[in-house]
Amino acid sequence: MSADFFDELKLRGLVHQTTDEEALKKQLNEESVKLYIGFDPTADSLHIGHLLPILTLRRFQLNGHVPIALVGGGTGMIGDPSFKDAERSLNTLDTVKGWSDSIKNQLSRFINFDDSKNPAILANNYDWLGEVSLIDFLRDVGKNFTINYMMSKESVKRRIETGISYTEFAYQLLQAYDFLKLYEIHGCLLQLGGSDQWGNITSGIELLRREKEVQGFGLTMPLITKADGTKFGKTEGNAVWLDADKTSPYEFYQFWINTDDRDAVKFLKYFTFLSIEEIAEIEKEFTEAPEKRAAQKALAKEITTLVHGEEAYEQAVKISQALFSGDIKGLNAEEIIQGFRDVPSYEVQQEDSMNLVELLIAAGIEPSKRQAREDVQNGAIYINGERIQDVAAELTDSEKIEGQFTVVRRGKKKYFLLKY
């Protein structure tokens, strides 16, 4: 355990609130502490909104503590009302079980469940929530909380006027019960979460105090906001997933490389394992020459490598450079799929003419033969990055990247994909 571990968390901006900071700091400095974060399975993949808590668990493990990753197989069937404007849709047991398994696999990329000194623990709250009877739960847990106490929580107060079901109202009791069970089974004394979890965390600490007469601790991390006011974790309205099949490594890399200048250094502290000193050096270089984007490059490299591996990072850089330079021919089929996932595409038919002008019309790239001929003659059409100005040009096998794709560009930025 490092004596300045807690101070480093604060330097990185990772501490929003704590219960009894001095006692927690003392505990962390003197012994290996078991701590947990819950991850409710609300989809078949985690997204970058989960990244800060996951990486914080990793920081604790690297510092000699024992992280418990709690998959909410039970609570995921209920829905946490914290800072939500409406009820979540309820999912079936089979759906939640499938999502829980996916999340377990993803978590193992970031925290070590086989460490020889302090292996992380994987738990699923369905193991106890799925077994407890309603009568036992009300007697053992419900008796410890007044309605006034539960309604005082910000997560509940925000929803009272618009309406909250008893199901979601009771969520804080389920989360409190998780803390109690993790203490009983593993000796867990610390719960981490986003700042929206403060009410749920303090309920768990209260239950520990009443039932076991022990002091539990809570630590919340800040909810991440972007300088431009848009929601963190989304690009063009879509979530940025940790699953490469849902968000490709190239798209993932692009999210980070396009970070606002005002957020770049803050995100380096949040999301990377570069030392505070290394980040200070990058910040100095970035401040002196922001146009070189040193902070964004370091950020994109560290996080893409951490989530998808070094090879995927290098591939993402290669795709980015190819698109910037227009030199598409150096890309392979897999890289084409990543780099052009969202561009319009056309499946070339056997009967289609391979004449460039005819193909531009068949693929819907050009509205008419006259416009197609004009664009070709004026140098507005590029095939795999090369300008073609011959209206009689025919596409041959040499223009088919690995026999599967041809990339057509019209003008400066409009890309199209021909598939074979």
How would you characterize this protein structure?
The protein has 420 residues and is of the alpha/beta class. 45% of the residues lie in helices and 12% in strands. It has 19 helices and 13 strands. The protein has helices spanning 5-11, 21-30, 51-62, 93-107, 126-129, 134-140, 147-151, 154-160, 166-169, 171-186, 198-212, 249-257, 261-271, 276-288, 294-308, 310-325, 333-339, 356-362, 369-377, and strands at 17-18, 34-39, 66-71, 121-124, 190-194, 217-221, 234-235, 238-239, 345-347, 381-383, 386-387, 405-410, 414-419. Strands 1-6-5-2-3-4 form a 6-stranded mixed sheet, with helices on both faces. Strand 5, helix 11 and strand 6 (217-221) form a beta-alpha-beta unit. Helix 12 (249-257) packs across helix 16 (310-325). It is elongated, with a radius of gyration of 26 Å. Residues 83-88 have low confidence and may be disordered.
* Percentage beta strand: 5-15%
Shape annotation: elongated
The neighbouring-strand order within the major sheet is 1-6-5-2-3-4
Termini separation comes to 58 Å
Q: What topology emerges from the helices and strands here?
A:
Elements: H1 5-11, E1 17-18, H2 21-30, E2 34-39, H3 51-62, E3 66-71, H4 93-107, E4 121-124, H5 126-129, H6 134-140, H7 147-151, H8 154-160, H9 166-169, H10 171-186, E5 190-194, H11 198-212, E6 217-221, E7 234-235, E8 238-239, H12 249-257, H13 261-271, H14 276-288, H15 294-308, H16 310-325, H17 333-339, E9 345-347, H18 356-362, H19 369-377, E10 381-383, E11 386-387, E12 405-410, E13 414-419
Parallel strand pairs: 2-3, 2-5, 3-4, 5-6, 9-13
Antiparallel strand pairs: 1-6, 7-8, 10-11, 10-12, 12-13
